[in-house]
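User: For a reading group we're discussing how well predicted structures match intuition. Take Ubiquitin carboxyl-terminal hydrolase 47. Before you show the prediction, I'll give you the sequence so everyone sees exactly what went in.
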Amino acid sequence: MEMVPSEENQFVPKEIQNAAEEPRVLCIIQDITSAKTVNERLTINLPASTTLSKLYGDVAHKAGYVKATFDLAWGNTPDMAPLDHSSEMSLSDSGFEPGGKRNFLQLTDKDGEQPQIASDESGTADSSGLDDSSQERFIGPLPRDGTAGCSGDYSSPSYTYSSILNKSETGYVGLVNQAMTCYLNSLLQTLFMTPEFRKALYNWEFEEVEEDPVTSIPYQLQRLFVLLQTSKKRAIETTDVTRSFGWDSSEAWQQHDVQELCRVMFDALEQKWKQTEQADLINQLYQGKLKDYVRCLECGYESWRIDTYLDIPLVIRPFGASQAYGSVEEALHAFIQPETLDGPNQYFCERCKKKCDARKGLRFLHFPYLLTLQLKRFDFDYTTMHRIKLNDRMAFPEELDMSPFIDVEDENTLTFELFSVMVHSGSAAGGHYYACIKSFSDGQWYSFNDQHVSKITPDDIRKTYGGSSGSRGYYSSAFASSTNAYMLIYRLKDPSRNAKYLAAEDFPEHITSLVQKEKETEEQEKRQREIERNTCKIKLFCTRPVKMMTESKLEVHKDKTLREATEMAFKLMELEGVVSLDCCRLVKYDEFHEYLERSYEGEEDTPMGLLLGGVKSSYMFDLLLEIRKPEQVFQPYKPGEVMVKVHIVDLKSDAIATPVSVRAYLNQTITEFKQLIAQTTGLSAESMRVVLERCYNDLRLLYVPNKTLKAEGFFRSNKVFVESSELTDHQVAFTDSHLWKLLDRHGNTIRLSVLLPEQSPGTLANRTLCQKVGGDSDVPLEGSEGNTKLVEAILEESTEKLKNLSLLQQQQQHGSSTSDSQKSSDGSDFEHIESPSQGADSNSSLCVAADNRELENRIRATAGGSSGASSDPDNHFASEERSDSEVNNDRSTSSVDSDILSSSHSSDTLCNADSGPIQLANGLDSHSITSSRRSKAHEGKKDTWDTAEEDSGTDSEYDDNGKSKAEAQYLYFRAEPCSQDDSSSDAQKCLVVHVDKRITLAAFKQNLEPYVGVASTQFKVFRVYANNQEFESVRLNETLSSFSDDNKITIRLGRALKKGEYRVKVYQLLVNEPEPCKFLVDTVFAKGMTVRRSKEELLPLLKEQCKLDLSLDSVRLRKKTWKNPGTVFLDYHVYEEDISISSNWEVFLEVLNEPEKMKSMSQLAVLSRRWSPATMKLGPFKEVILESSSVEELKEKLSEMSIIPLENLEFAKGRGTFPCDISVLEIHQDLDWNPKVSTLNVWPLYICDDGAVVFYRDSTEEPLVLSDEERSDLMKKESSRLLKTGHRVSYSPRKEKALKIYLDGGPAKDPGQD
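Assistant: Thanks. Here is the predicted 3D structure of Ubiquitin carboxyl-terminal hydrolase 47, as structure tokens, for the group to look at:
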């Protein structure tokens, strides 16, 4: 049969076409009526002459729907009308493409109603035990080729596989797989299909007064069997049974051996059935007896004992053999074949009183009524140290004669009839179980594959023998099918004992009551599902009078009226006692666009199913419970209207009012829209300017009178700004107007929460957060007291200059309009913007850099001339060694922040007056920005991004002349102090900062200097994310555009990076420690610095922070790639010239035990380790320095170091990451020893850099011979060791959880556990 791929890349059947055959049409249908079915595909292959009416019938049969309750529409053009239900037109005439081309259709609701599920009698509904909408659409057989159930016929009228039948046709119910409980399902179905076990279980009566039904294993099995026999569902759950086992949900994800489960379950049942009629049931049905004997070959004396068994384990392949047993009979003969005990294994004969040759074996004395044979397909390969599965062929008969295998005379027949084959498909690491079971009522074989039950043939049973068609010798098992029989259950053919299945009319009274109880429960579940199918579930929003918008989910039956739904929403939102029900109504709402679509006037008695368009899994809209005040009247919302939020702008006060909602139509003109706004707001329509904010950073002035709102880009929900004044601002171009500047700043200002560091004495911490530069503020200075007094004198002199300059500039600017750059937005929502220039402190926003430069230089000279760098013992940065250039450029050496002197910062820092444009982060001024803020972004301007800094991965606050780049790039910045804990004077302070997000990080840091108390070079900015993770922001020439409102920033003291500097993490390399990588410190390396210089700066830091007192020549630095040591850095190497360096770089520091031997880049440093097979141990790492990449030189150095003769020395390269850990059980044979190459830099070695790991050994040394017990102990130790080091243990699979059934309802929890 040819297969073609579907949309999901699954293969679907397509009959092979002959030239004479009628062309066929392949239809792939997507069910979009429910969220649970939208990902499913129904595939049907029909003759091209099939009518549309027949297509609907076939889809209904396959999907399990009533025929006339759904529509089919084309999948690629869903807007077209659905296909006609009653049309007799053929598929080829209706536009379907035959010949293997895929025709995509969508199964949709009909008239807003979801499709009706077909009745139980049709065999499609109520088949899962879950919600009907979640039933799996089973299109093909579950088993793959080679598994039971693959009869392969394809002749159903609905063009589906006949091997998969519904419950009404097979008469049997499946079991739902909880996750990995297929092994449990297989055993439960086998027990259910065993008449004697089922009858005995039904005869047992549960006494509820003596035991909890939830924890009673027999009762829950009884309930399960009753449901399997009487339920109309296709599959039922096993959760109640596993709960009675004491299992939690995690057990469902543990796969176990079905034979192990059988034994554990029988033990549990025996314990539960003590002192009942069923106490000996398991033994009566499943227990056999055998004799374990030893016979002396000299005197004939025999010693023996009697053992019982519940199953017989049969070996598939004898130990060490390459051929498997061909049949069960052959394996049984081998099972009872005696072995001779001779040589060292001689048996001590009690009669001969000496060790003699003997014969040891087993004899069957009694076979059980139900004979269980376990085929031992799982084994352990001691060569590879892996668990394996043996897939060899082993045939088994349908009737098995056991008389040749019994040791006693038995007149009764010993013919057993096969009725259950438990099949395993997969490998030793995991797989899938299902059961093939023969019904004793009709002799038909069925495949019980979890929730799917299908008829199969004896040929399908023979496919489970295993093996492959061809012979491959020893490796035949590896190439065989992985689906084969694992457990076989036979029943003795004895008419006097063989029972039939108990019919419903023969049920005991207590089982009849249980059947009735379960039927009522099932009917109740069905009614509940019916209610669920008719319940509309839709998002509900509500703006409470006190709270913000709240969200919930309204679940209302489709027949409930709008009035009843409103009352339900009223109670759901807990509005009783808050507002009256008469003040609430439900309206259609689009939460994403914040758009009120329509209201429902006069439809209070209309059913919700009609208003919402039927019952659907999801809706493209929401509902809003709208609330009015008692004196207000609800405004009608008509379909087709758009909602506009109108913000009134007052240019005189630079205020933007809160929005007023206006509803308009898209076909209205701008003139009509202005008149509508004028009626609502009272503004003049003639002088009105309307600006539409279509999206972020896109302001559009609406000035064409006859243009419609739709043409201007209005949508469902819109935001406009209106201004109606007589100012001359109307006469200038919009992008140069005051209105545009105000809106531009309003749209780009964000609110940030900045957490300041705790201040320490000696810093600028004592500054007030809101300084008055022109006032008599005391500015404590770092350094000596004399310097402090001198600087105070300079500040006093500068104060007079600042006052004079302020008065002069105020006179020059008198009468002119206030610059937008001097305005700030409201602290909460930025709707109201006030000017900080009004008041006595207006001089704080003036630029006086030119006159203050001399003052700043005087202060720097004073501080530097007397004391140089700060000598304050509390200075956080006193331990850093800095060059003279660093000291000159480091503004923290001055006790006065230069920004305060040169730019006169206050709490509202604005450096640009109206006389000049605002300098933006990319070098543009505000006049060059258009209404879209993009079109002229590069027009006539030079981009100021520093490409050298971009390439190097670091940024600097200073240009080549040492001048702050941020000084010319000030945008809007305003800070408001707030304390997290006012009661604690030592608490960290926080700021609420309103800032233009186009500001660079460098400018932002300099604006923060007065609040942090140190220069921007001496603190770092960390962005705090939702999970409280902090990441440092280091690119100073990037803007804050990635930030948004209420983002958090943490400021930490510490020197920030300058141009050409890189932050480096230093780790110590400890090659012979269990954890070879240990973090030490963070430090800074600079471009052009030598390795020796970086070591000189690093060692004092190690001594102070890590208590490591090291000398310069006793350490080396080397490359770190994850955990792997790499290139050794020589002292004369220069960063960025000889060594590439990047942001957040990592290096290893290695302490040397002897003088450095690496002197040249041509040398190669290799880490070697000796392997001793005789002791099964690895030696410590030792470094070998090679002058070349010669294999011969490596072997000579290793021979010299280990005293192994050169001709006996073998080596191999380690695998994986350092330290290349490997189990001592694998190293001797798994590594590629003694590769046939002459140089190290070729395959398979590829040793081209320092740090490679090489193992070596003496080829004449024989490996230690281990017993099985010693090997097992060593395996456990190695597994533990390698797991601790984080390395993969290739021979150890995942740890399995022991299979256990708890008789007391569950495991006892360790009181020490959380």
